[in-house]
Write a structure and sequence with these properties.
Layout lengths: L4 H14 L5 H8 L4 H13 L3 E3 L5 E3 L6 E4 L16 E4 L1 H5 L6 E5 L15 E6 L8 E6 L2 E10 L2 E5 L14 E11 L6
Antiparallel strand pairs: 1-2, 3-4, 5-6, 6-10, 7-8, 7-10, 8-9
Length: about 190
């Protein structure tokens, strides 16, 4: 029995809304299947393919492939239009794309516009890999005089400073300590209405 993409899509949408994999009875309603054996067959197929798994408490949960998303093989031009970029799709999960070490990765919401010229806007989520060292030119989340900020790491006269990406703001020259919390490795922005 092949995986029915519409069943997987309905299941992923249900999970996004309720944050739980539904019971077999609810799955039957969701998929429009009245036969319990067919629901069970689809669930088993989803488990075999890695979209679902059994948790230790025997409940169904998302498997390693559940959060895969289509990823267009061809980039889309931001300049002049071209022929349909849909030359097929691969799949990717956001975690596998942005997160190398989950235990050391944080998502931090941006407040303010001091990094706007770097494309980091208020409300964005920056993906930060926690580490205590960084290179000049890295965008870092730093603790300066007991306050967190996100800026470019730079050096002046042998001392580390934090440089904004907005001319309306001044370079931060710490009066006390400057500690690197982590380095920005990605950014997530939601656009449009939910």
């Amino acid at each position: 029995m092949p995986i029915d993409a519409s069943y997987l899509a309905k299941l992923q949408d249900y999970y996004a809304k309720h944050n739980v994999i539904p019971s077999y009875a609810t799955l039957g309603k969701l998929w429009g299947i009245s036969a319990k054996s067919w629901v069970s067959n689809y669930v088993n197929r989803f488990k075999e393919e890695g979209y679902l798994k059994l948790a230790p408490d025997r409940r169904l949960g998302p498997g390693p492939r559940f959060f895969e998303r289509r990823f267009a093989r061809s980039p889309i031009r931001a300049g002049l239009p071209e022929a349909d970029p849909d030359s097929g799709y691969e799949v990717v999960t956001i975690d596998s794309y942005l997160v190398k070490q989950p235990s050391r990765t944080s998502l931090i919401r941006v407040k303010g516009d001091s990094m706007a010229d770097a494309g980091i806007l208020e409300g964005d989520l920056v993906v930060v890999e926690q580490q205590h060292t960084a290179n000049v030119g890295d965008i870092v989340v730093a603790i300066v005089d007991d306050e967190f900020t996100i800026k470019y790491l730079d050096r002046e006269r042998g001392n580390f400073v934090l440089r904004p990406a907005n001319k309306a703001y001044s370079v931060i020259r710490p009066k006390g300590t400057l500690e690197i919390f982590g380095v920005m490795v990605g950014l997530v922005r939601r656009v449009g209405r939910r």
